[in-house]
Design brief:
elongated; 2 domains; SH3 type barrels; alpha+beta
C-alpha cells in the first residue's frame, strides 16, 4: 500500500516535470532558430514539423530529468508534511521505499532505449533535412553550400554548391578559384572528380593580361570528392551496431545509447537515496540542480576524453558508473 502511494505521489510531478523540460528544450530550439525563421519567412507548418521531428531528442532529455525532479519533489512534500517521519517511526526501513522508484525508472529506461535506438534516428534525419530546406530551399540530399577550401600551395577554391552525383564525384556550381600567382578562374559549373576540379566554360583572368575563355580546364585538387556522410545519430540501432564492428569511431556512440538509457535508473536511484536522507524539504530543489549538473559534467567529460582517445568506447558509461557507485553507498546508509 505504501509503495503504491509513493508511486502515485511521484507520477503527478513526473508529468509536470517532463512537460517543464520539454518546454525548456523546445524554447531553446525555437529561440536559437528564430532569426532564421524570420529571415526565411518560414511557415508555421514547417516550424511545427521541426518541433515534432525534434521531439524524440527532447524526450531523451526530458524523461530522465523529469524523473529526478519528480522523485525529489514527492519526497520533499513527504518531508514537509512529516509523512516521512511517520513512515520511519512505524519501523519501515527507508530502503523499502526504493522499490517503486527503481521499478518506474526501469520502465522509463526501456522507453528511453527504444526511443534512442529506433525513433530518434529517423526523426533526427528528417529534422536535419528540414533544417537544410529552411536554410537553403529544396536541394538534393547531401548538397554542400558555400564550400571553400585552401589546399596548401594551390590557392583558394570556392563553389556556391557542391552536389553529389552518387558515383564518387560531385557537380560544382558557381566556381571561383584563385591560384597562388593571382590568376582567377571563374565558371558557372564544373565537376569534382579524381582529385581535380574540372571547370566547364571557364574564364581565366591573370594579372596584367586580358581574360581568356577555356571550354574545359582541370585544376589539381589534393583530395577526391567525399559525399556528406550520415551521422551516427541518424543510424538505427541495428545499423550502428553493424557499423561499430568495422568502424572503431562508431563504438562510443553505440555505447552511449545504451548508457543514456541505463542512466535513467542511476539518476532516479541516487535521487531517491538523497531524498530519503534529507531532513529539510528546501534541500530537495538544490539536489535536483546538483544531480543534473553533475551528470551532465561527467557525460560531457566522457565525450571529450573519447575524442582525444584517452578512454575507449566503454568510457560512455562514466557518468552511470559514478552515479551507481554513489547510489549504492547511499543505500547502505539507509539499511
Amino acid at each position: 500500500m505504501l509503495k503504491r502511494y509513493l508511486l502515485r505521489e511521484i507520477l503527478t510531478p513526473y508529468l509536470l516535470g517532463t512537460l517543464l523540460f520539454i518546454g525548456l528544450v523546445t524554447t531553446d530550439l525555437l529561440s536559437s532558430l528564430s532569426g532564421v525563421f524570420l529571415s526565411r519567412s518560414t511557415s508555421w507548418t514547417d516550424i511545427g514539423a521541426l518541433v515534432l521531428y525534434r521531439m524524440p531528442y527532447t524526450l531523451g532529455v526530458a524523461l530522465p530529468l523529469g524523473l529526478v525532479f519528480a522523485v525529489l519533489v514527492a519526497l520533499a512534500r513527504w518531508i514537509r508534511d512529516s509523512e516521512l517521519k511517520a513512515v520511519f517511526a512505524a519501523g519501515i526501513a527507508p530502503i523499502r521505499l526504493l522499490a517503486p522508484v527503481l521499478g518506474l525508472a526501469t520502465f522509463v529506461a526501456a522507453i528511453a532505449w527504444i526511443n534512442a535506438g529506433w525513433i530518434k534516428p529517423e526523426a533526427n534525419d528528417r529534422y536535419n533535412d528540414l533544417v537544410y530546406e529552411i536554410y537553403y530551399g529544396n536541394a538534393p540530399s547531401g548538397v554542400i553550400s558555400n564550400a571553400s577550401y585552401a589546399p596548401q600551395g594551390l590557392g583558394v577554391y570556392f563553389a556556391r554548391r557542391v552536389i553529389p552525383t552518387g558515383d564518387g564525384s560531385g557537380n560544382l556550381r558557381d566556381v571561383r578559384v584563385i591560384t597562388p600567382d593571382g590568376t582567377v578562374w571563374s565558371a558557372r559549373e564544373g565537376v569534382w572528380k579524381d582529385a581535380n576540379w574540372v571547370l566547364m566554360g571557364a574564364w581565366k583572368t591573370a594579372p596584367g593580361k586580358r581574360p581568356e575563355f577555356w571550354e574545359k580546364v582541370p585544376l589539381p585538387f589534393p583530395s577526391r570528392f567525399v559525399e556528406k556522410k550520415t551521422t551516427y545519430e541518424s543510424l538505427p540501432m541495428q545499423e550502428l551496431r553493424e557499423l561499430a564492428r568495422v568502424d572503431p569511431s562508431a563504438r562510443f556512440p553505440l555505447q552511449r545509447r545504451h548508457a543514456d538509457a541505463v542512466g535513467v535508473i542511476a539518476l532516479a536511484w541516487l535521487a531517491a537515496v538523497i531524498g530519503l536522507s534529507l531532513r529539510e524539504a528546501a534541500w530537495a530543489f538544490v539536489a535536483v540542480v546538483l544531480l543534473i549538473f553533475g551528470y551532465y559534467v561527467l557525460w560531457t567529460l566522457a565525450a571529450q576524453l573519447s575524442n582525444y582517445s584517452v578512454i575507449g568506447p566503454y568510457g560512455a558509461w562514466l557518468a552511470d558508473v559514478v552515479y551507481f557507485a554513489l547510489a549504492i553507498l547511499g543505500t547502505r546508509r539507509l539499511v
